[in-house]
Amino acid sequence: MKDWATLTTVEEMEAVTNSLLENGKKVGADTWQQRVKNQTPHCGFGEAGTCCRICSMGPCRITPKSPRGICGCDVHGIVARNYLRFTVGGTAAHSDHGREIMHTLHQTSPDGNYQIKDPEKLIRIAKEWGVETEGKDIYDLAHEMAEVGLMEYGIPFGTQKFAKRPPQHTQDLWDAAGITPRAIDREVATAMHMTHMGCSSLAEALIRQSLRAGLSDGWGGSMMGTEFSDVMFGTPKPVDTTANIGVMEKDMVNIIIHGHDPSLSEMVVHYAQDPEMIALAKSFGAKGINVAGVCCTSNEVAMRHGIPMAGNFLNQENVVLTGACEAIVVDIQCIFPALGPLSKCFHTKFITTSPIARMPDSEFIQFDVESAGEKAKAIVKMAIENYQNRNWDLVNIPAQKQNARVGYSVEAIKKVLDTVANSQVDEFGTTKPLIECIHSGVLRGAAAFVGCNNPKVRQDAAHIGLMKKLLENDVIIIVSGCSAQAAAKAGLMDPEKAKEYCGAGLKRVCELANIPPVLHMGSCVDISRMMVLASDIAKDWGINISQIPLVGCAPEWMSEKAVSIGNYVVATGIETFLGVDPYSKGSSEVTELLQGEHGINDWVEAKFVVDTDIDSLGDKMLECIEAKRAALGI
Ligand code: BF8
Ligand code: SF4
Known about the structure:
- By secondary structure, this protein is of the alpha/beta class.
- The structure holds FE(4)-NI(1)-S(5) CLUSTER with Oxygen and iron/sulfur cluster.
- The site of iron/sulfur cluster has 14 residues, from loops.
């Protein structure tokens, strides 16, 4: 047995949360821990996916006594329709985030709020898309690329441009299965149409569309979100930061940024560093301004600026419960409406900024590209002025914090791993050193950890527990979203500490490359980076993606976006392990399609594995990696 003493344990994190809940009790705060109790037990029909309310003849619930809805739809049709609608909720959200990024790109200018920070990347993608670059001003090119990218949402003919990125074999599988993604909005609209009353009730067709819609997210909307965020805000490079609730500062103005779109957080970070704002903070008696993040926004600014990560999804109330949060500024997605009433129990300002995410009990400051600078400055100022309203009797910032090295874009991973082996390096690096490590058995394989927290799973325990298990077995981990923050909070991204918990091979790789064994690849939209990495590995190795000893895992997932992700990760050929059931267990046919040997596995060479017993889920991941090695004869 290894000694994990130097990492922060789940028990220690829970103790800290409990002390914050005590703080909340003093002011009558309502928290998710209480609301989970109020909501338990959950509706069995909803959980099995067997309730249909697609038309007003229902709701129809399937039981042994009533095996069909009023229209005659059977349980398989109902479960599959629900699954498809769940998927495209996520496809729409991710892709709309990508669309906002493209609109921001369209308005970049040398003296405006947003500039081009990675022109090489812009030119590279322009060449890939067949857009003429010669002799063009970089901003003209950016605007043209924004228009081409925005057309990907509604292009009447053809398929997604980025869907040409994976190996030919993957593209052939997609074509044969009829799931190569067309216009992104079309895949969402088709799904809504298919699931309208009186359209599709054939489970197989509905699951096929789920994969197609997912692919339009992962190889469409999300990929544009990632690539063009890099173009505007910089492609991430390794940077040191800190994680967990102790990153909040007692004597400083604490601004928490929460959500997903970096257009807002980049601006807030910029103005929080403005000497004029810092001087203002000092005039109110604070030592300065401290910006920290929650959820994927946190990942974005941690990766690009080393901004500390205060916590993940189920920590969002904790930051307010410290009594030391002057403002929690949010944009879109994964924001608890609870933050409104909760912030009223403290001095905290809850500031919403997007017309997409309007909430009661918040101050709405609409953010747009033209006024971004001015609005961000006003928000920072509001937070500073609010410092004087703190109730010092309620301030409780637990001293829990770990170091983390983050910022592993595909470009950065290739670069750092080049130091491990002496392979030929082309202009943008290759994945060959990584392949050599896996081929020789120094590393057994790789695992991509993604996704959320979910009160159905003990918070962070599945992420951290599974990661530890894989690290011991020489499996290198790439990570994104709230899974990344779980790892960072525990200390698994501290290059000094975390390597001690790896098997001998992985430890050696970490030492040679000076990396942590858990590589932070970004937000959930950035799972597209993982797709590019997998695709590059397959090409450099000369095998199919499904042959790589690589698995995906979302052990604590909760959102529709996570299901959209699951669909595209599997459809890309990566076996995906879930710790929470996607409301599909009510149908044997849908379960067979998603998890059986001859469902989607026959189309895309991968499937889902669902197991709520986390230890057994980990065993299955290791078995899958070893089986892929054996099949390759390595
Ligand atoms: O997109 S991992 S809880 S924050 S959905 Fe949300 Fe889940 Fe976190 Fe980011 Ni992703
Ligand atoms: Fe019931 Fe059919 Fe209407 Fe669904 S579509 S609510 S199963 S009648």
